[in-house]
Task: structure prediction
Amino acid sequence: MAVSGAQCLASCVLTPGTVADGLVAIPNVVPTTPTLKHASGQIEVVVDYGQTDTGIVIKIAGLIHSAHIGGG
Result:
């Protein structure tokens, strides 16, 4: 899954009324970290957003990466 696609999908699951609304359990904290599962594994996305009278405003979205560095 592309990084930009993961950010867009994470934004959609947070937006009430979208096709993706309700597909992911969203913690009740901001920023939130929905985990998106896909054919190659999963991607954890961080989304900082705010609620407005007309919906939500995405402030920033990014991914959480980890790496294992070690010998042999």
